[in-house]
Specification:
The chain has one helix at residues 172-185; strands spanning 22-27, 36-41, 47-53, 61-66, 71-77, 85-90, 99-106, 110-114, 119-124, 130-135, 141-148, 161-166. The chain is mainly beta. The N and C termini lie far apart (49 Å).
């Protein structure tokens, strides 16, 4: 008689930082019926992150979760900001309080101020869907790039499917949270 065993459980605290560049596919659709959001797949085709926005498009508070539904970041729009301001709160298993981890401000440019003092800039790509995140403190070094996903022959999957490439030694969940804020600013989520 054969036995069925579940897959070996993955570690309880997955690593969101790797030593090599990582690619993800972002599908700007929620897997939950009648909600807005997105689903993020790793290079193996496994779902790694999800965002479900149960409010209207561009809701006031949105949650970035891992596949198990654990909230990694909550993204909260500041109501009385003139040009647009979002705070990213990192959720900690060991504390009941959320910690402000970054702030995104939209003026002429979109800048990201991290809690450790670093500053990222979101740079739009000319005439194409997509953008780059660069580190202003490292003279514009590339942190991540998002562009429309296409096949090897150059056929685009659509306006709601993107490839995200994150450079080594960068927290993937942080970059995903920043990408989600960009989507909220542009009413894509």
């Amino acid at each position: 008689m054969s036995r069925i065993y579940p897959k070996t459980p993955s570690p309880s605290s997955p690593s969101y930082i790797t030593s090599k560049p990582e690619s993800f596919t972002i599908w700007m659709k929620s897997l939950v019926f009648n909600t807005r959001g997105c689903t993020v797949y790793n290079s193996k085709g496994e779902i790694v992150y999800r965002v479900d926005n149960y409010d209207n498009k561009g809701g006031q508070e949105v949650y970035l979760m891992d596949i198990r539904g654990k909230v990694l970041y909550s993204l909260l729009q500041k109501k009385f900001s003139l040009f647009g301001c979002w705070d990213g709160y990192k959720w900690d298993d060991h504390s009941s309080e959320k910690q402000v981890w970054f702030r995104v401000r939209k003026n002429r440019n979109i800048s990201v101020s991290l809690c450790d003092g670093c500053t990222y800039q979101i740079v739009r790509m000319d005439g194409r869907l997509g953008f780059k995140i660069v580190d202003e403190d490292e003279e514009g070094a590339l942190v991540a790039e998002i562009k429309q996903k296409q096949t090897a022959t150059g056929i685009h999957f659509g306006d709601d499917v993107f490839t995200l490439t994150i450079q080594p030694h960068i927290d993937h969940s942080l970059i995903m949270a920043i990408v989600m804020v960009y989507g909220l600013i542009n009413n894509q989520i």
